[in-house]
Amino acid sequence: MYRRFLSALPIVLLCTCSGCLFNCHTTGLIRESEPRQSVVFESAMAQQAFNARAMSEDVSGETLKSCGVAIPFLLSCSRQKKLAPAASYNDQVVLCDTDGDRHITDAEAMTYNPEFHWSHVDGSGIDGPGFQIVEPD
């Protein structure tokens, strides 16, 4: 009985303790000393649409470089490099501001963030004055 227990012990340990003995994970920032650029927005809607996408986790939390080494049950090391928040914001300004004048218009913001609900901001938006929505036939 005692021998069966000892012979089954390694299998039980492998099934229950499958983690590594040594774990190491580091995250570094790229371009962390870069200052945030100033931008002029045509309207509050353009600013909200831009910020909704530029500050979202899928854009600002993007990993640029990642590497790792693992020796099963013994060692796991990984390193990630991410853009600093100001650098990520500046890159999104470059993507949104198509003419490069540091003035983001409503049209540029609409193109940059088409999922933004323009009609629900401050009671105005694309269904406000000056816009006409045409239903398809």
Characterization of this structure:
The chain has helices spanning 2-16, 44-54, 57-60, 85-96, 106-112, and strands at 22-30, 40-41, 63-71, 75-83, 103-104. It starts with a helix and ends in a 25-residue tail after the last helix. It is elongated, with a radius of gyration of 25 Å. It has one domain. The strands form two sheets. Strands 1-4-3 form a three-stranded mixed β-sheet. It has a two-stranded parallel sheet with strand order 2-5. Helices cover 36% and strands 23% of the residues. A hairpin with a 3-residue loop joins strand 3 and strand 4. It has 137 residues and is α/β, with parallel strands linked by helices.
Summary of the model, kept short:
By secondary structure, the chain is an alpha/beta fold. It is 36% helix and 23% strand. Strand 3 and strand 4 form a beta hairpin.
Alpha carbon gap, first and last residue: 81 Å
Q: What portion of the residues fall into strands of 2 or more residues?
A: 15-25%
Oligomeric state as shown: single chain
Mean pLDDT: 76
Residue runs with pLDDT of under 50 for 5 or more positions: 122-137
Q: State the shape.
A: elongated
Structural class: alpha/beta
Order of helices and strands: HEEHHEEHEH
**Total count of helical runs of at least 4 residues:** 5
**Strand order in space, largest sheet:** 1-4-3
Overall tally of structural domains: 1
Number of E-type strands: 5
- Biggest sheet features: 3 strands, mixed
Report the C-alpha radius of gyration, rounded. Answer: 25 Å
The helix fraction, in percent, is: 25-40%
